[in-house]
Amino acid sequence: MAGFRSLAALAAAGIMVSGCAATTPPVDVTRFHNAQVVPIVPGTVEINASIADPAANRELEYGTYSAAILRELQRLGFTDPLGDAESSEYVVRYTIDRAVLTAAGSRSPVSVGVGGSTGSYGSGLGLGIGINLGGRPKDKIVTELSVRISRRDNASVVWEGRASVEAKQGSPAAQPGLAASKLAAALFKDFPGVSGTTIRVP
């Protein structure tokens, strides 16, 4: 665990550097929660990736997204349990899905070692994917980050969000490091957000 945290710290530094070097497209974000009835009080969090292929050597990639999510949660007042993850008040699970969206509109998965579905009361939400028809359209990489925050004591889901971004294949914005920073920042913008409403974050 200590090695993973160190890797996450390095990934966080890489995110900040890459974020200065390229401009990313807008992000579509949708959140689900009941915070208007039961406010979400910040506390300690454990962050876990839902890994589709445990045998894949994707530690750096996991570290990049974990660091981006933790950074945004810390900005909101959540804290790292510092080595005692099992005592955290909240468990944060996330998934990453990447796909190629062709100019013809077909979509095929891109394996990045992270996948699956978070599930919960927000599941089944469909986010529209826009296609740029101006000029000669090119294939795009669609990256989607899904995050679910649950209470450890009773496993109840207190918040779930999903953020999706499209970037031209081969562009800096399509790289996992920059996408992680952009998606996490957009997802937790104005936390907890308006439940059930999709917004576009520049």
Please specify the SSE layout and strand pairing.
Blueprint: H1 2-19, E1 27-33, E2 45-49, H2 59-75, E3 90-101, E4 107-110, E5 140-151, E6 157-168, H3 176-187, E7 198-201
Parallel strand pairs: 2-3
Antiparallel strand pairs: 1-6, 1-7, 3-4, 3-5, 5-6
Helix pairs in contact: 1-2, 1-3, 2-3
Keywords:
202 residues; seven-stranded mixed sheet; Double Stranded RNA Binding Domain; alpha+beta
Q: Give the number of DSSP strands.
A: 7
Low-confidence stretches: 1-21, 111-134
Number of helices: 3
In oligomeric terms, what are we looking at?
single chain
Total domains: 1
Strand content: 25-35%
Overall SS class: alpha+beta
User: What is the percent of helical residues?
Assistant: 10-25%
What's the CATH class, please? Alpha Beta
CATH topology, which one? Answer: Double Stranded RNA Binding Domain
Q: Rg to the nearest angstrom?
A: 17 Å
What is the average of the pLDDT values? 78
H-E order: HEEHEEEEHE
Named at the architecture level, the CATH assignment is 2-Layer Sandwich
Major β-sheet profile? 7 strands, mixed
Tell me, what's the shape? Answer: globular
Distance between the termini: 35 Å
